[in-house]
Model the fold of this input.
Amino acid sequence: MFATAQRCITIPRDFFHALLGILKIDLSEPQLSSDEQEAMLQIARSCIKEGDYSPLFMVPKFAKVEHHDTHADGYLDLSTFALGFEMAPPTFKDVKFRLGHPTIKVETIGAVRSIRRLEWEPDLLHRFSDLLRLTLESTGLDIAALVDTLGGRLYGQIPDKIFKRLSEGDRVRQFRDKLNEFITSDSENLDDIVNWIAEAMGLSDRTLECPMSVLSPMRFLDAYGNTIHFGSSGGLVDVICYKCQKSFLIRVALLKPDSYVLGAKAYRVPGLKYAFTHAGGAGLLVKNGCNVGRFLWSTPTCACPKLEDQEMPLHDLPLQRPNNYEYGRQNSKEWHPVIIETMVKS
Done:
């Protein structure tokens, strides 16, 4: 993987040699188009044909998501992120292409009804308080819906583990009372109540033993969880099912302005799981043949049958950035891959 880093590539075609060597797909560099952008799409289509859907979740070239809050965590190259290893393949693997775009079997969640952008509070407890309030506005005091939404879709945890924790002793009744108190209290300082709710759900410590991270869920969301949803470019999207008309709140990395995303259809890929997604929780928002957002933690919503064959847009992908290092400058103190390699070996 080091060979494909932007600072180690001086001749653009070298990138494709290295990438194909890693992917081990049925494609060689001489078969690629001389146009670098089309060559990237050739590789992406070959991956998709073989059941690797990760190119669909890459940040398209048109997206503007390089904000300071993602840069702060070091995600500069290609404005993208690591999905992690594929833990489970898609349930349905048949793929057809039309005009370069793949048609795959997906589950239709519904249409985007509203979008809420958040000013992310630096204080973890205050951020949790904001998300709790928004979740309650969507679910009310339905404990199951609240845990699925807040714990699963917003904090990336496994809801069953939270339910198991809440089932201990008399915690469910206390949990409902605290939620009601949170909604009805006139006090400006609700920190004690919010902290109790977060602890009861296991979000403020590591008792849930999340496989995604050794951090507590609240800290994980603040760091990597925030980055993979594009930081301030992300939002909370209210999606309504076409059949039962129930609505669901999911966190989405948005690629287009809110006014364009409204009305987009949300599609989930059944079965697919990466290390940093829920099983079957990854999908895309599509409108007018354009990928306008993607989500990773959308646990199954309602039980309505919604499987369909859908053409998913495959947009131009960002190319590797050139290595502009001026080789031969022996006195330069700039970063140099050969120097770094020597240091590592020593």
